[in-house]
Amino acid sequence: MTADSIKEALKQVKYPGFSRDIVSFGLVRSAAFADGTAKVSVAITTSDPKVPTMLKTEIEHCLRAQPGVKDVIVELAVSAAKAAPKPGTANLGGGTTPAGLKHSVAIASGKGGVGKSTFAVNLACALAQILEKSGRPGRVGLMDCDIYGPSVPLMMGLGGARPEVDGENLVPLERHGVKVMSMGFLVDDNTPVVWRGPMIMKTIQQFVQNVKWGDLDVLLIDLPPGTGDAQLSLVQTLPLDGAILVTTPQPAATNVARKGGLMFQKVNVPLLGVAENMSWFEDATGTRQHLFGEGGGATIAEMLGTSLLGQVPLFPEIRAGGDSGQPVTVSAVSGKPAKAFREIATTLLNRLKVPHAG
Ligand SMILES: Nc1ncnc2c1ncn2[C@@H]1O[C@H](COP(=O)(O)OP(=O)(O)OP(=O)(O)O)[C@@H](O)[C@H]1O
C-alpha cells in the first residue's frame, strides 16, 4: 500500500447519508502507510454525534480489507456545524443543506453574455413543467446569485416585486411554477451595490438558510459569470450536487469555459455536464447557420471529462421571452426552443435520478 492507494481505497467510503465518497468531498486530509499500518486523517463539519463514529468504523473496515494492512489509525477532526442542524440536515465543509432540499445545481459560465441566466430561467421552467406533470408541483427553485447584474427577476416577469418577510425568513416569490429568490428583489434598481467578499458570502448563506424554500426536488443556482474568488467562495458556501457549465460554440470560448470547469473540480463539485447555447440559427429555408462556430460545447465537455447535456439554438423568441418576462418554455410550450430546454431538463433529472414522467 501507498498513500495514493489508501486514498484510492477510501473512495469506497460514502459520507453517511450521501451518495458521494469522502475523497471526492475533499474530507481526507492525509494518508500514509508504514510497517503494515495505514494512517489517515479526516476532517469533517457536523453536529451529529453519530457521523464521526460511523465514518471511523467504515474507514477501518475498508482499509483492513486491503492487502498488507495489519493496523489502521484514523484521526478524525470534527468541528461543529455553523448552523443548528434541522432534521434531515447534513453539513459539509461549512455548507448546510436545508431540510427538504433534494438536489442543488449551480449554473455557471466562464464569461458573461453566453446566455447563462436565460438558460437557468428556461431550464427551471422546463423542470417545473415536467415535475408538475409527474405529480410534483412547486418543487423547483431558482436562486439568482448573480449579484452584479441580477437579470432573473425581469426574465421571470417579477421585475419590481418584493418578497414577503416571515419572522427571520424571506418567502420566495412564485412564478411559472418556480420559486424564485434574487438579489434583484432586495436592492433598488437605481442604487448600484458595491459588494465586498464577506458581504457576498453572508448574503448567499442567508439565501440558502433564511429563505423558506420548502420541499424542493431541484434548486438551480445562477452564479455570477467568471471564475474569480467570489465564485469560488460561493461554491464552497453552498451545498452543491453538481454544476452545469454554459458556453457558446466558438473555439475562443473554450479556454475560459475550461477554467470554469477546473474551478469546480478544485473544490470537488462534480460537473453534471456542459450546455451549449446559441449553437446555430435556423434560416427561413430551415438550414442551420453556425453563426458562432461549431463544436465548442462537445470539446469542453471532453476536456473536462464530462458530457454535453444538450444544445440550445439561437431563436429570436428566446430573447423576446426573456425581455417580456414570459420565458419561451412557458409562452410557446410546443415550439422548438421549448423542446430544446425540455430535453436538457429531462437529461438533468435522469442524471440526478429524480423520478419523473417527462
Ligand atoms: N438561445 C438564445 N437565442 C436567442 N437569444 C438568446 C439566447 N440565449 C440568450 N439570448 C439573449 O442573449 C442575451 C444575453 O443573455 P443572458 O443575459 O442570459 O446572458 P448571461 O450569460 O446570463 O449574461 P451575464 O452573465 O453577463 O448576465 C439576452 O438578451 C438573451 O435574451
UniProtKB/TrEMBL annotation:
Homodimer. It comes from the Bacteria. The keyword Cytoplasm does not apply. Binds and transfers iron-sulfur (Fe-S) clusters to target apoproteins. Can hydrolyze ATP. In the C-terminal section; belongs to the Mrp/NBP35 ATP-binding proteins family. Belongs to the Mrp/NBP35 ATP-binding proteins family. Residues 4-75 form the MIP18 family-like domain. One of its GO terms (molecular function) is ATP hydrolysis activity. GO terms for biological process: iron-sulfur cluster assembly. ATP binds at residues 110-117. This is Iron-sulfur cluster carrier protein. Keywords: ATP-binding, Hydrolase, Iron, Iron-sulfur, Metal-binding, Nucleotide-binding. The keyword Flavoprotein does not apply. InterPro entries: FSCA_dom_sf, MIP18-like, Mrp-like_CS, Mrp/NBP35_ATP-bd, NUBPL-like, P-loop_NTPase, YlxH/NBP35. It comes from Oleiharenicola lentus. Pfam families: FeS_assembly_P, ParA.
